[in-house]
Automatic annotation (TrEMBL):
<keyword id="KW-0862">Zinc</keyword>
<protein>
    <submittedName>
        <fullName>MBL fold metallo-hydrolase</fullName>
    </submittedName>
</protein>
<dbReference type="InterPro" id="IPR051453">
    <property type="entry name" value="MBL_Glyoxalase_II"/>
</dbReference>
<keyword id="KW-0378">Hydrolase</keyword>
<feature type="domain" description="Metallo-beta-lactamase">
    <location>
        <begin position="12"/>
        <end position="191"/>
    </location>
</feature>
<dbReference type="InterPro" id="IPR001279">
    <property type="entry name" value="Metallo-B-lactamas"/>
</dbReference>
<dbReference type="GO" id="GO:0016787">
    <property type="term" value="F:hydrolase activity"/>
</dbReference>
<dbReference type="Pfam" id="PF00753">
    <property type="entry name" value="Lactamase_B"/>
</dbReference>
<dbReference type="GO" id="GO:0046872">
    <property type="term" value="F:metal ion binding"/>
</dbReference>
<keyword id="KW-0479">Metal-binding</keyword>
<dbReference type="InterPro" id="IPR036866">
    <property type="entry name" value="RibonucZ/Hydroxyglut_hydro"/>
</dbReference>
Length: 210
């Protein structure tokens, strides 16, 4: 397996494609620019199996409708943000951009920490709320990588001033769910460059003193 990062939209949200040697792939957080994302997948000849969301803010779901027109794909996200897909007030698009993002599709709701098996992929679902109530991270031990959404970044942490955000909860998620992973684990955030768990433990100024 290997992962590819594609920066999309004005907020440069990172979408990730996790591909397998059997030609299948998973799509994480398709934020916008659906045609660009589709073109990239088709150029590689990959067959998408599912869309996985770390959370349902507008800049992480904006290309879903384009993807669903091209492929019939299941969507996975935490049950606490199920209503956010179709509600611009909840997903933030009603306030931050000039158009309303609405996804009219029934998702597969994640309720607890579990191992999610889709085709040849096996991912550990980690509940990491704080940036949003239903934020999750997807840990793939096989490639030593975690898709962390907007929970933890290279040198920073997720904002907690949006709907349902909570600083104490965010810090608990980071310390109890992410920093316990092996230090060599690649941290693949929703914005900015990739880093590692060990690097953030050593250098991230927001993590010290909590």
């Amino acid at each position: 397996m290997k992962w590819n990062r594609i920066s999309l939209g004005p907020l440069e949200t990172n979408a990730y494609i996790l591909s397998h040697s059997d030609g299948t792939c998973l799509i994480f957080d398709p934020g916008s620019e659906g045609e660009k994302l589709i073109r990239s997948i088709e150029q590689q000849g990959w067959e998408p199996l599912a869309i996985l969301l770390t959370h349902a803010h507008f800049d992480h779901i904006g290309a879903i409708n384009d993807l669903l027109i091209r492929w019939k794909l299941p969507i996975y996200l935490h049950e606490k943000e199920k209503a956010w897909l179709s509600n611009p007030s909840l997903n933030g698009s009603a306030y931050f951009i000039g158009e309303k993002v609405q996804v009219a599709h029934e998702p597969h709701c994640l309720q607890n920490e579990t191992t999610l098996t889709i085709g040849s992929f096996a991912l550990e679902v980690l509940e990491t709320p704080g940036h949003s109530p239903g934020s999750v991270s997807y840990y793939c031990p096989e490639i030593e990588a975690v898709f962390s959404g907007d929970v933890l970044f290279a040198g920073s942490i997720g904002r907690t001033d949006l709907l349902g955000g909570n600083y104490e909860e965010l810090m608990r998620s980071i310390h109890e769910r992410l920093l316990v992973l092996p230090e060599e684990t690649a941290l693949l955030p929703g914005h900015g460059p990739e880093t590692t768990i060990g690097t953030e433990m050593d250098t991230n100024p927001f993590l010290h003193g909590f």
